[in-house]
Amino acid sequence: MSWQGYVDNLMADGSCQDSAIVGYTDAKYVWASFPGGTFVNITVDEIDIIVGKDREAFFCGGLTLGQKKCSVIRDSLHADGDWTMDIRTKKLRFMQYNGFKLVQEGFI
C-alpha cells in the first residue's frame, strides 16, 4: 500500500478529520495527505520543531502544525514504542483536530 493509500484508509470511515504522513529525517516534507486538509501545509520548520530537542518550549507556548496554532497535551514522541504526541488545534468555528502520530521510518 502506498502512503496515500494509508491516508485514504484513515479517512475512509469519517472518524479522522485530517491525516498526513510526514518525513522527518532526510526527506522533510509531506509524503501523503488528505486533500484540502490542514496537514498538507506542514512546513520543514514545523517538522524541525516537533522532532527537536527542546520539548518544554511548546508545552508553554504551543506550536504550529500546518500553519495552525496548536497546544501540546501529551508528548511521547521519544518514548520507545510509542512515538506519538497528542496535539489539539486552538478552537476556531467549533472545529478541532485531535491527535498526531509521527511515523518512524518503517514503523507505524
From TrEMBL:
One of its GO terms (molecular function) is actin binding. It is found in: Cytoplasm, Cytoskeleton. One of its GO terms (cellular component) is cytoplasm. InterPro entries: PFN, PFN_euk, PFN_sf, Profilin1/2/3_vertebrate, Profilin_CS. Pfam families: Profilin (PF00235). GO terms for biological process: actin cytoskeleton organization; positive regulation of actin filament bundle assembly; regulation of actin filament polymerization. Gene3D superfamilies: Dynein light chain 2a, cytoplasmic (3.30.450.30). Keywords: Acetylation, Actin-binding, Cytoplasm, Cytoskeleton. Belongs to the profilin family. Binds to actin and affects the structure of the cytoskeleton. At high concentrations, profilin prevents the polymerization of actin, whereas it enhances it at low concentrations. By binding to PIP2, it inhibits the formation of IP3 and DG. This is Profilin.
